[in-house]
Specification:
It comes from Microbulbifer echini. InterPro entries: AspAT_Ic, PyrdxlP-dep_Trfase, PyrdxlP-dep_Trfase_major, PyrdxlP-dep_Trfase_small. This is Aminotransferase class I/II-fold pyridoxal phosphate-dependent enzyme. This protein has 428 residues and is an alpha/beta fold. The chain contains 13 helices and 13 strands. The protein has helices spanning 8-26, 41-45, 76-86, 100-113, 138-147, 163-172, 195-202, 234-240, 270-283, 289-302, 305-331, 357-366, 398-427, and strands spanning 32-34, 93-95, 129-134, 150-157, 160-161, 176-181, 213-217, 247-252, 264-267, 337-339, 348-352, 369-371, 388-391. The strands form three sheets. The chain has an eight-stranded mixed β-sheet with strand order 2-9-8-7-6-3-4-5, with helices on both faces. The chain has a three-stranded antiparallel β-sheet with strand order 10-11-13, covered by helices on one side. A hairpin with an 8-residue loop joins strand 10 and strand 11. Helix 4 (100-113) packs parallel to helix 5. The longest helix has 30 residues, at 398-427.
Length: 428
């Protein structure tokens, strides 16, 4: 049934049926969680050979004893792994601790307090701002909010961020000093940036504040679900446009090996890396080189990166299929929501009818299914349309995910019908 064409009496009958079904589910006292994109235990098991892989041999190539202090920019073998993931030269990579988010926070703080490559620190501007493609990654927005950096929403389309709007804002406001990008399988939309989008992003350094930086969070660089999807090289594009200093790239093994004990990477030009290292020297003696060595050995002795990620895809694919099947079978043709089929990454982005997302999340929570809060994918937690919900299929077992999605679809229907009934009653 198309919700717009239904009469009040038809909607009332439908609402009654849905409410009855919903109340039956509430009696089951479910406790299911699809809030965050965490790897499942089965995925984490793929990397258990990390444990004990060094067998007492803690020396890296060249004789470095990884148990000791030093090595601010990381082991060469770890930097090579990061270079492979980001498709950049090893000399342009710093290998750090377990979290790329930490490196991103450190980079934003460096730009804010000290500036990059001799440029004006952002804190000296009257109103520094980041452009934020939306829906996007909530933790990016948290960094800006904590530092008092303003945020401007940029809609995301099938090619990536709306570049006409990006360029317009940058031309009109010299105090825009950054843009967040998740360029491959974007969190949460699953979009991979097109060649034209990457080229236009690479040209921003020609018109932006000299201190402007693109934060290229390539979190899902190797996280294909099926066939490999190629992301155009931002490094190559900026070199062609003489804007290489405008980009900082990030990646990690957090969803490749063990999520809580991986290795994170930042890649940039020499001047940018020098700016980062100047601050790192005051905050650390060096990263966990033992863990970096473990990862290097794991990907040379136990598996290749590509083979390893195929195993991840084999585990994740049925879960994404489960989500998409529920959405298609339960909602297709009813005009109750929109979604895309991602080719990789960790999320399915679902858009309810405008004004329904919070109601869906609240209904699901009351029924025992935890979802990411409505609005979380927008700066300040404010979704102007109250429509976007991020679904994270990776963590729960398939059986639990199947149940959670059945509840989710029911909640979408119930919230939508109630909203439509309310509108018709107010109108009439």
């Amino acid at each position: 049934m198309q919700i717009e064409s239904a009469s009040i009496s038809q909607l009332a009958e439908w609402e009654k049926e849905l409410s009855t079904h919903y109340e039956r589910i509430r009696q089951h006292e479910l406790n299911l969680d699809i809030t965050r994109g965490k790897p499942s235990a089965e995925q984490l098991n793929l990397s258990d050979k990390l444990d004990g892989i060094l067998s007492g041999d803690y020396r890296a190539a060249g004789g470095t004893d990884t148990r000791n202090y030093g090595g601010l920019i990381g082991l060469t073998c770890a930097r090579e792994l990061g270079a492979d993931m980001l498709q950049v030269p090893t000399e342009e990579v710093i290998a750090g601790g377990n979290s790329s988010l930490t490196l991103m926070y450190h980079a934003v703080l460096t730009g804010y307090l000290f500036g990059f490559a001799g440029n004006t620190p952002w804190r000296e501007l009257k109103a520094p701002k980041f452009l934020c493609p939306v829906p996007g990654y909530d933790r990016h927005f948290t960094i800006c909010e904590q530092l008092g950096i303003g945020m401007i929403n940029i809609p995301v389309n099938a090619q990536g961020p709306d570049m006409d709007l990006v360029e317009k804002h940058i031309r009109e406001d010299n105090e825009i000093i950054g843009i967040w990008c998740v360029p491959k399988y974007s969190n949460p939309t699953g979009v991979t940036y097109s060649e034209e989008t990457v080229e236009r992003l690479a040209q921003l350094g020609q018109i932006a504040n000299p201190g402007f930086r693109i934060f290229w969070d390539n979190a899902y660089a190797v996280h294909d679900l099926g066939h490999y999807v190629s992301l155009p090289s931002i490094r190559a594009a900026t070199l062609e446009n003489d804007t290489a200093d405008s980009v900082l790239q990030f990646a990690s093994t957090s969803k490749v090996t063990h999520a809580g004990s991986g290795v994170a990477f930042v890649s940039a030009t020499g001047d940018n890396l020098k700016s980062l290292q100047q601050q790192m020297q005051a905050m650390t003696i060096g990263p966990d080189k033992v863990n970096q060595l473990r990862h290097s050995r794991f990907f040379t002795e136990c598996t290749s990166l590509k083979d390893h990620m195929r195993k991840h895809a084999d585990i994740l694919r049925p879960k994404f299929d489960c989500v998409l099947e529920h959405l298609h079978n339960g909602l297709a043709g009813m005009n109750l929501g929109q979604w895309e089929k991602p080719q990789g990454g960790y999320f399915v982005s679902f858009n309810t009818r405008p004004g329904c997302a919070k109601a869906v999340v609240n209904l699901a929570t009351e029924a025992g299914v935890k979802l990411t809060p409505a609005g979380a994918t927008f700066p300040y937690g404010k979704d102007p349309e109250d429509s976007n919900i991020r679904i994270a299929p990776s963590f729960p077992p398939l059986e639990e995910l199947d149940t959670a999605m059945a509840v989710f679809v029911l909640c979408v229907k119930l919230a939508s019908v109630r909203q439509r009934l309310k509108h018709l009653h107010q109108k009439g």
